[in-house]
Amino acid sequence: MTNSKSEPGIAGQRRYRAFMSYSHVDERAARTLHHWLETYRIPARLTGMPSPRGPVPRRLTPIFRDRAELPAASSLDQEVRLALSQSDALLLLCSPAAKASRWVDAEITLFRQLHPDRPIIAALVEGEPADSFPTALLTPDSHGIVHEPIAADFRPNHDGPKLARLKIIAGLTGLPLDQIIQRDAQRQLRRVIGVTFAAVFLALMMALMLVFVARARSEAEQQRQQAEGLIEFMLTDLREKLEGVGRLDVLQTVNKRALGYYAEQPDLNALPAASLERRARILQAMGEDDFKRGDTVAALAQFREAYRVTETLLTAAPDDPQRLFAHAQSEFWLGYVDFIRSRNDSALPRFEAYQALARRLVAIEPGNRAYWRELGYAQGNICTIAVDGKRTAQALKSCHEALETMERVRQLSPDDPNIAADLANRHAWMADALRIQGNNAAALDERNQQGDILQALLQADPKNAGYLQDWMLARYSMSQLLHALGQVKRAEDMQQEARADVNRLVAQDPDNNDWRVWQKKLARPLTQARN
Asked: Which secondary structure element, helix H or strand E, spans residue 421, and what is its range?
């Protein structure tokens, strides 16, 4: 263990896992976090593991929290100085009030003097970093170096409370964050019932299968095919069921298990093309789930790696339908991220490339329903850009083309609920194209057609979170149109129904960032909801 500096008259033996420094304006946040940290149990499989902070303890106790107002003096009192000297880390609650507090600055300065080698963890509980990080936190040391603190952002649209708390655990124990997240997720999985049990069972089966592959070299090819068959199931049937119940946390665990299989392969380049395509699909699935959780940075990393793989495979076989299809998905996801970020000029070329690939697929296999469906998606994306940019004529044309294509697909598969949901979505965008033209009555008619399809789907599958989300969004838009047409009471009733449904969805999966955003929108009055 590294020796630390100590002041004369202050005992330096380690007594506290951390010293919590905060403004007393943030007393409630400090008390809540202090209680959570001291009652949190480190996952059993991590307890005792070596780390830069020493063996990982079962609990992070005690953590010093000053409960009394500091005296009106010019320096820190003896109890605080003693506690700082005996603490393994400094846990700093950052807020505008903390930045304005001279005592917080003094505690940071003294801790760095006493323990220049021990970590400072900055927990942002309010405000922007520039307005909330105390001056002493970013002050260069004697060598002119600014030591970046370990940061945890409690704000809802950033890390959020759950991830921020786990980041603090990682900082206090010295364990990698991804290891803590994985172990914490595994512990929570034991509490999940129904379809979650099936997901955990299948994930364990795959893990056992991969161990067997590693030990039985003579049967490697046969075992590889079995493992990838299971991965294919996880990417298709299992994923569809988990999406239906809105469990992003379980989807994330399943994706990591699947991707872990490829990480254990000694040489990815030696894998067959089909295996590399499947890995790209896993990356796209992980990116989609990261994006839904609001982690755009992680999502982009997954989508870009998937794009690199699918582009390389397509270059080697430019007329292979499967590779065309896989690369079309890569173009779509990168364009979609740009679109959500309001970067339409960057999104449009991606969507146009996606549409060109879909047209090539249809030209190669005109009777393939899946390829026509993909073309409908691609046309729909062009429609989306036109509607968002309020280009009325282009919006009507592209949205109508997308609707016609999806109606053709529906005729080929009249009993497929997924295609019915796609058709409902196309009616929704056609409604938006008509709305920006000022034709609210025709737009409402398209929304009613969308609603008829969605209600039929929900009647057949009332627990499907995807259908419920679409029906919630449809009623949100219908309430806007009704309000514009002067049917205020009916509009308010419809908005209230949509609000109740989005509250149910958020309660079912609090990690879904999209649902939290819509919950905020639906909480506004009708006259403000589109702002």
From this structure: helix 417-437
Cα maximum dimension of the chain: 85
Task: Label residues 124-137 b or e (16+ Cβ within 10 Å = b).
Answer: bbbbeeeebbbebb
CA dihedral defined by 240, 241, 245, 246, rounded to 10 degrees? Answer: -30
Residue 71 phi, psi dihedral angles, 5° rounding: -65, 160
Mean per-residue pLDDT, 504-524: 87
| pLDDT greater than 50 at residue 350 | yes
- Ramachandran angles phi, psi of 496, nearest 5°: -65, -40
Distance from C-alpha of 490 to C-alpha of 481, rounded to nearest angstrom: 11
3-state secondary structure 9-74: CCCCCCCECEEEECCHHHHHHHHHHHHHHHHCECCCCCCCCCCCCCCCCCECCCEEECCCCCCCCC
Where do runs of H (alpha helix) occur along 89-217?
96-100, 102-114, 129-132, 160-173, 177-189, 195-215
What is the C-alpha separation between 20 and 94, in angstroms, rounded? 11
pLDDT class for 409, splitting at 50, 70, 90? very high
Contacts 24+ apart (CB under 8 A), 52-57: 52/174, 53/88, 53/89, 53/172, 53/173, 53/174, 54/1, 54/174, 56/173, 56/174, 56/175, 57/17, 57/173
Residues 465/247, Cβ–Cβ less than 8 Å:
no
What is the residue whose two structure tokens read 């949509």? 498
Q: Which single residue is written with the structure tokens 């009555």?
A: 441
Sequence-distant (≥ 6) Cβ neighbours of residue 85 within 8 angstroms: 6, 7, 10, 11, 12, 114
Backbone angles phi, psi at 6, to 5 degrees: -140, 145
Instruction: Give me the pLDDT at residue 180, please.
Output: 85
Yes or no: say if 437 and 456 are a contact pair by the CB < 8 Å rule. Answer: no
What is the average pLDDT value for the chain, to the nearest integer?
Answer: 82
**Residue 244 banded pLDDT, cuts 50, 70, 90:** very low
Give the Cα separation of 323 and 278 in Å (integer).
11
pTM of the model: 0.49
**Three-state SS letters, 356-400:** HHHHHHHHHCCCCHHHHHHHHHHHHHHHHHHHHCCCHHHHHHHHH
CA pair distance 362, 62, nearest whole angstrom: 65
